[in-house]
Amino acid sequence: MPRPDAPTTLGRLAAHGSYFTVGTGPVPPGTWQPTATLRERAIRNGLAAATADRMGVTEARVAASTVFSGYAARLWSIAVGSTVVAGRCVSLGAEELLWRSESGTLHLHIERPRFGNPAATEVLEGQLAPLIEAWSDTVAPGLSWGNAASALRGTGSVLGPAADTVVAALFRDERLSSALDPATGRRRSCCLFYRTPSGGVCGDCPFPSAPSSRG
After folding, report:
1. Number of neighbours of residue 185 by Cβ within 10 angstroms
2. Cα-trace Rg, the chain
3. Does some domain include residue 8?
4. What is the pLDDT of residues 134-181, one digit of tens each?
5. Which of 20, 105, 120, 160 could form a disulfide with 77 if both were Cys (CB 3.0 to 4.6 A apart)?
């Protein structure tokens, strides 16, 4: 059976939920921008401020960490998902992958989907590494790589065993593998969710319970 083309692949992925959904075809109305603009300080600050308002937090790093986690999860969903479905990763170039924010949710769009490089190149080198560097004045790189590793593992959980080989290959990158404790599977850094009003810790948090002090 022939493998599906890029638009068909993305259409199939959408069945897994919003994180796997990418618009295709003519760009719809709205303030769409290339994802390369996410590296700009003003854009980052605007997203963090809006997220902080919704979450009821005052720390920019907490809000920025949340924004980054959601974006990383969407990138992995597309990259790993397309590799599982079609055997190739959809191109996620920072100029061709578009984004806009609606009610706090990032939406993605690719006008003319095509297959590109392997997932490691498309996501790690083309998207995450430059973004982590650009955001390092607000979010520590180690924390961001922890978010990226956690998001990748989450994507694998959604896709199931079919994604195991793809996810394992991606975790050979030291930036991802070193972000998790190999013995426990827990992160080596905290995403800072415990510093939100709802508090608590995530399932892979290095803290067994939320630290008592938020100072």
Report:
1. 11
2. 17
3. no
4. 999 999 999 999 999 999 999 999 999 999 999 999 999 999 999 887
5. 20
Q: How far is CA 207 from CA 31, 119, 175, 187, in A?
A: 39, 31, 21, 9
- Count CB neighbours of 15 within 10 A: 9
Q: Given pLDDT bands bounded at 50, 70 and 90, which one contains residue 104? A: confident
Contacts of 86 (CB under 8 A, 6+ apart): 3, 4, 5, 6, 9, 115
Q: In the chain, how many domains are there?
A: 1
CA neighbor of 184 nearest in space, from 203, 159, 210, 161: 203
Q: CA–CA separation, 214 vs 167, rounded Å?
A: 34
Structure-block tokens of residue 71: 């974006």
Q: Which helix (H) or strand (E) holds 9?
A: helix 6-13
- Domain-located, residue 204: no
Does residue 60 fall inside a structural domain?
yes
Matching residue, tokens 């520590």: 140
Show the tokens assigned to 64. 């920025």
**Block residue for tokens 């959980």:** 157
Q: In this structure, is residue 113 part of a structural domain?
A: yes
Bridge partner list, 34: 98
Query: 193 is written with which tokens?
Result: 């969710």
d(CA 152, CA 73): 7
